[in-house]
Amino acid sequence: MTREQARDSLRWDGTRGVRTPRFRLKPTAHGSGYVDGAWWPRSDDLMTELPDLIAVLSVRHGAISRVMYNLTEWRRTPTELVTGGRAVELDGYRGQPPNTVEVFDAKGNKIVFLVVPFHVDPDQAHAIVMEAAAPGSVSSVDNLLMISVKDRESRTKRAAAWERWDSQGGATSWRLPATAARRHQTIIQGQNDHDK
Predict the structure, then answer these.
(1) Beta strands 110-115 and 64-70: pairing type?
(2) Pairwise CA distance, residues 1 & 6, whole Å
(3) Percent of the chain at pLDDT above 70?
(4) Among 3, 95, 116, 195, which one is most buried in terms of CB atoms within 10 A?
(5) Under a CB-based contact definition with an 8 Å cutoff, are residues 84 and 58 in contact?
(6) Residue 86 gets which letter from DSSP?
(7) pLDDT tens, residue by residue, 130-189
(8) What pTM was computed for the model?
(9) Gap between the Cα atoms of 99 and 134, Å rounded
(10) Angle (nearest 5°) at CA 40 between 38 and 45
């Protein structure tokens, strides 16, 4: 993908109504390193971004059955996407390695994509995509995205805190005691009456 192609891919293909996904895979003979390629989506809306990527990958790899993603990096997403007449299971995890998406075909073969954040400058995104998909590239996700050790540690601690919070019941376990809840409701009602 050239820089011009990366910029042009921002436009809709008027003949088919499909956007060309901005991604690149390593040649199959060079399956080394942490990622198999890179994907530069246009937004953080997985339901909008995935259908075009899945359509292209299905041509090369057969039916796609599952996609795993990091919950903290995408908008709220349902657990299933129907595209191309097939249901694709969508599994979001806070523990999923940051800036990655794992795509599984119907045989269980996995493709790991580095996800270049959608807001990255086009020239920088192009360079990252090309490096991630270069034959023999063994660069880590952090190196490709130029994430410092300090930033990675901070993200890891934050993800672990979310995981603990979820495992302890998350938002569903937080409740005011009954008397405090009634008192809170009375205060709110009094404010609403006063605002009238």
Answers:
(1) unpaired
(2) 7
(3) 64
(4) 116
(5) yes
(6) E
(7) 988 888 888 777 777 875 556 656 656 666 666 677 677 765 544 444 444 444 444 444
(8) 0.66
(9) 18
(10) 125
